[in-house]
Amino acid sequence: MKNTQKTLLAGLVTGIAISFIAFGTAGSQERDTQQKVVNTKAEAVFAGGCFWCVEADFEKLPGVIEAISGYTGGHVKNPTYQQVVRGETGHYEVAKIIYDPDQISYEELLEHFWTTVDPTDAGGQFCDRGQSYATAIFANSVQIESARRSKQILQNSGRLKDDVVTPILAAVPFYKAETYHQDYYKKNPIRYKYYRTNCRRDKRIKQIWGG
Where are the alpha helices (DSSP H) in the chain? Predict the structure, then answer.
């Protein structure tokens, strides 16, 4: 009887130990997976006129996790939308693109950006006029040479009749726009479509880039 109890006890202890090892391995694998997800996120910032449209244009791309509307490039901290559109801040309307570089590259984001704006217009975009609606690429130290090269390639390609005037600027602090601006195209699809159509954004892009 004692030998049987010892055998059962030994088996129980072994089983518990195996369970802890398995749990620890699974937990470690889960942490590694979570860490990989964190490590594969990257950011890019583009000014392309109305940030509702930039956000919508980028969020449809595979590999883009999220686009966040905001402001950057100016001298005022925590600017409001009203301040920015009045031209008091030096800020651009922008979208910060959160993406997975294992699925889409920064160079691919650049190409997509060019073909969703009018990079030959220095005075704004489509029906939205003024510096806050102008195009720009805000690049960090790793991205800036790629952005400059992409602009030069486009300029030399002959795809556009006029010069590419979109500036390549060093990344500076980004300020998230008000909550009601985030995902506006999802929360207010009818108003968004009406705005985009009446601003002639898609019509002009088709004229510039073709079908």
Answer: 2-39, 51-59, 81-85, 106-114, 144-157, 184-187, 189-198, 201-209
Does the domain formed by 41-209 have CATH 1.10.260.40?
no
Q: Supply the pTM of this predicted model.
A: 0.81
45 in Cβ contact with 144 (< 8 Å): no
Active site residue 199: no
Using one digit for the tens of pLDDT, what is the confidence trace for 49-91?
999 999 999 999 999 999 999 999 999 999 999 999 999 899 9
DSSP classification of residue 91: P
Active-site pick, 50, 53, 127, 199: 50
Place of tokens 């005022």: 76
How far is Cα 78 from Cα 174, in angstroms, rounded to an integer?
Answer: 9
